[in-house]
Amino acid sequence: MRLDNDLGGGMNQWRHKKVSFSGVGGLINRLQTFFVGILRLWTIPIVLMLSIASGFTTYYGMSHFITPWIALIITIAIQSIIVICSLEMANIHWRANSVRYASVLLSLLIAIAASITFSYFKFYEISQQSNIRIERLNLVRLAVNDYLNDVLTVKTDLLDQQRNLVEHASKEVTQAYFGTHPLIVNNKYQVGEGPFWRHYNQLYQEKKQQLNQLEQNFSEFDGHYSQLQAALREFVQSEGEGIHYQSLLAAYNGLQLKFNHVVSSFGKPAPPAPVLMAYAQFVQPVQPSFAMWQGFSSFAFACAAMVDFFTVLLSYRLEVTAPGPLSEREQELVFECLREFTEFRINGNDELEIIIEKTDLERARRYQDWPRMFAVGFLLSRGFLRKVDAKTVEFAPNLYPLMADHMVGKIQAFKIEPLHSADLPGNEQVSL
């Protein structure tokens, strides 16, 4: 009776300690697993949304170069390759299978390069939209100002030419009146308001009338000039609004017609007027082209690369993280199978590493290692082990708490079992 009570009390005390210890460790493990599981579940929609966003920008850029439905198929293939290869990268190690690792990495890099290249066009359009609008506004402003400068130059030259003609005609009239004109051979009968003077006086009056008419025309032209300058100023200040652009075009065309009419009547060629873009062209979105790479935008490139980087990173982490906890029976199976390995070490990553290859002694004894290899494959597929190369695997961080909790229980059980075996014969003698 006393033996049973003592033994029962000791076992109950052990059960209480084990339950208490397992409860704390198990609770921490369950909370950690629950948190990791929530993050894993939340990672899936994030990866999908990032892939859709990257796919949209890739399709937008690619559709301007090839047929849209072909661009859609290629875009789906590119985004699928990025996600699949990212998941594959988490499952393989370059030392384990260098050929497969290189092929997966090459496929991933090609897909990322294609995605970034065509996504760059969309981000360039978004980031440079205001700059492109300002550039177009400056082009219009510079074109109008250059034309106005050419017009002023022609106007000044024409006025100077006509004034020089009037001045020259005035000198000829004076010379004709005093008889000192070079064409007068005998000035004895050519002094005063004679026929010679009347001829040159008529020419002078005609030149003077032409100059007055030109100045009057240019005074009307100055009104068009001021109107165009005011329209240009309002257009620049409004940053290219439609109504101000139409006013600018109307003033520009009016000044051009007036000036061409004035200078053509004097036989002077008008300066070529630049053709201003229509408002539809002014507000037209940027069409993707490889010329965008000439005016390289680091911000647009960083945005395009950032989306694919996060897609690759989260897809990689999604596969690295264990899909879920192990059940008690699975933990027992894994623990018993891993105990069959004999060579352990700490590798350069400060992780516990297992050599899964048979030892020489095991080969000599023809040891069947399929149970422990099954455990290795099972843990690799569940993310609790990571393959280093063809001969070794290492513990993932989420396997340590499971193994620690299980080993503590085993150690406590080993400590109680010898005490129970030693007390049993003595208690039997006492009862006898």
Q: Taking all residues together, what is the mean pLDDT?
A: 76
Order of helices and strands: HHHHHHHHHEEHHEEH
* Major sheet size, sense and barrel closure: 4 strands, antiparallel
> Would you count the extended β strands for me?
4
How many domains comprise the coordinates?
Answer: 3
Report helical residue fraction. Answer: over 70%
* Shape label: rod-shaped
> What is the rounded Rg?
47 Å
Question: Concise description?
Answer:
With 432 residues, the protein is mainly α. It is built from 12 helices and 4 strands, in the order H-H-H-H-H-H-H-H-H-E-E-H-H-E-E-H.
Describe it.
The chain has three domains: 36-126 and 296-320, no CATH class; 131-282; 328-431, Arc Repressor Mutant, subunit A, CATH 1.10.10. Helix content is 74%, strand content 3%. It is mainly α and 432 residues long. It is rod-shaped and about 155 Å long. The chain has a four-stranded antiparallel sheet. Mean pLDDT is 76; it is low at 1-21 and 426-432. The protein has helices at residues 2-62, 68-91, 98-127, 129-178, 195-237, 242-264, 279-282, 298-320, 328-338, 360-364, 370-382, 400-431; strands at 344-346, 352-355, 385-387, 392-395.
Blueprint (SSEs and pairs):
Elements: H1 2-62, H2 68-91, H3 98-127, H4 129-178, H5 195-237, H6 242-264, H7 279-282, H8 298-320, H9 328-338, E1 344-346, E2 352-355, H10 360-364, H11 370-382, E3 385-387, E4 392-395, H12 400-431
Antiparallel strand pairs: 1-2, 2-4, 3-4
Helix pairs in contact: 1-2, 1-3, 1-8, 1-12, 2-3, 2-8, 3-8, 4-5, 5-6, 9-11
